[in-house]
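Quick check before the chapter quiz. The format below is the same one you will see on the exam, so make sure you can read both the input and the output lines.
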Amino acid sequence: MGGIFLISKPKITHVHPKKRLGQHFLRRKEIAEKIVDSLQATDKDTVVEVGAGTGELTRLIIKQAGRVVAVEVDETCFPTLQVLADLNHNLELFLDDVRKLDLADYREALVLGNLPYHLSGEILFWLLGQRKYWQRAVLTVQAEFAARLVAEVGSHDYSALSVVSQTFLEVEKLFDIPSSAFVPPPKVKSTTIRIKPLEGVELPVSEDRFIKFVRACFTHRRKRLANNLKMMGIPTPDKLLEELGHSPTVRPQELSAHDYVKLINAAR
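Here is the expected output.
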């Protein structure tokens, strides 16, 4: 099992952010406090922190939550996190890739983290796959990524990611964070979001099949949706769309998440 790391006489060490890991360490305490407070954790909660880094959020959340599982893959961060774990009985370390963590071991968990920009999508889909095991999450992501999650139907940012996230999640944009709050400063803006799994989601197919279907529908965003459906081997897509109350010329970004659920049901 991942997460086992032993070090003799651990001590806090300076860590240089690694470009290959997409590391940008938050260095503004007032912003870190705002992120942690947005999770609304209590001493009855278990919090899984994704990408603990050098412990900026960890130091704060261990004062609020009853149990904290800090997840980090960068070995140079391990000594600092180990010092924190030695000093705080409610802090556990999982020193490995977060996607190897089984949230079934932490039922009803809260999730916290400043996500590496290049892995935000993968981590979000990891959370989607385990959403019955967590209650809510507060995540800091690239502003553009956050905009796509909450985008309205027909808008420039509306995409397959928008459809999938709005099918399974309640997404709320909380606040933006300036690049100057991080070391090194990223070239893009950051946004903190809060997400919660939606209850009672019913699909006529498996979740994996639905997600692949939505992605395929957006293969050629600027073309008619009927063209994309035809490429998937769906017969008479124009007629199918008309039967569902849509124009045959409708484009992928003009259907809501609910529309896509009805579409895949009719296309089976």
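If your answer matched, good. Confidence is low (pLDDT under 50) at residues 1-8.
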